[in-house]
Description:
The chain has 15 helices and 20 strands. By secondary structure, it is of the alpha+beta class.
Amino acid sequence: MGKVKRLALLGSLMISAVIVFRALTFPSFQPTVLPCALHGPREFPGAAERLAEAVRFETISHSPDQLSLEATDRFVGWLMRTYPRVHRRMERHVVNGHSVVFVLDGSDDTLRPFMLCGHLDVVPIALPEAWTSPPFAGREVVEEDGSRYVVGRGTLDNKNSVLGVLEAMEYLLGADEHDGDGGGGGGWRPKRAVIFAFGHDEEVGGMQGAGHISRWVRGYLQRRRARLGLPADPAAKDVEFVLDEGLVVTDGMLKGVRDRVAIVGTAEKGYLALNLDVSVEGGHSSMPRPRSSIGVLADAVGRLERSPFPSRLGEGAEAALLTHVASEMPFHMRLALANMWLFSGLISYVLSAVPTTNALVRTTLAVTMVEGGVKENVIAPRARAVVSLRLHPSDSSAYAIERVRQVIADERVVVSVRSPASILEPSAVSGCGDDDFGFQAVATSIRQVFPDVLVAPGVMIANTDTRHYWPLTDQIYRFCPSELRPSDLGRIHGVDERISVSNFHKTIDFYYHVLRNADGGLEALRVSRAQTRQGTGDL
């Protein structure tokens, strides 16, 4: 064997050894915690009935100019009556007339406050006749297997979170009435300040709700800085972290992962809607020119659909998603994921073959509207297509617009942004490492309530109103503790939206644990995990 061949063989063996070693030693990223003593009907009596009652407030957002403000105000009033401890102990502030903020100051001003967010409004009902129960009746139904569900608009998006947060706090504020939950009179007294923020127009962008709440919170933070003797700094990001609605607990979303996965959104894709316009001289169809406006437009659309945006695997939160579940996957898949430096192209190819995972690794483009032509025997002088893009966190809107123009490569096609509201840059990617307190508090809480679930960061494909909270913190997490099968995901904004009663109890329990786990710092979480490894400690 020649020297070159021997060196090549040796190199191949060394690379193979490295690949196998990395796969065998690839660490688990799952927090080690003791499952909590689950709270349920005994601790939260009547919670499901209260959720059903909340559904009956028809807080529909049709458009930014058509909001159900009277129903929203009645809903907020009902919340005050329904959660008396929250009403007594927390400062309540109505923001912009209809949104509401609650604040509970902490005993340690050196700890930055954190925010738990949700929204009061819901989407309209497109097909009321298709529902098995009226969408705003708030009925409880029992399936053949005995499972109980609350059915109605808002049970998954997002009154479950709003009530889950308030139920958890109501329970904590009555802590002296519960064995083992602390207290000392007057209920739970946190060290870290807590802010609840519930906007009233999230479903139409959140400008009037979360947009105003963000400005209110900035004012609160400046007053807090003055109280602490710190200089005024309007640009200071003084919120520790934000937790808002987002991704859920589900299974079957990632091939090769047998366990259910709770995906915590650490980033959101951006949004961009473009017009593609073509104008030519019209005329009678009996004397056509070589190219019509519709033909030119069709060519442009075809080129865009044949030229997808490049994969960004490894440049965003999707890589962290894969590494967080890799240790729980079959060896051959772990082999690839533990060595993305070598197999990223293959992994990207596999992910790109399925629409749900393709959306994770690149900016996507879809043609959603086409118009042109006025009569069957008239050559259309104008034609327009609308393309909707979801921007990967690594891509800017400016890059996307320029790439669309380059791919079309036809000056007859005018590319323009549809409106100022049709452009939203991707969010920054929030941290998910061992030193990122917000993520670790959320991940620990998930594992305590859902002990058989894997926790992983991920990318939100849809958009929330967390964009308005970007000036407050770099740590924004998007997660809702709803247990959904892939077939149930269509119930969100769809027909027969519902949540199981047991899942709603777990929702409350999750927020209870977030409140407790976030009331301290990273070291307190690490001590708790160390106690877990030693077989002691629990929440």
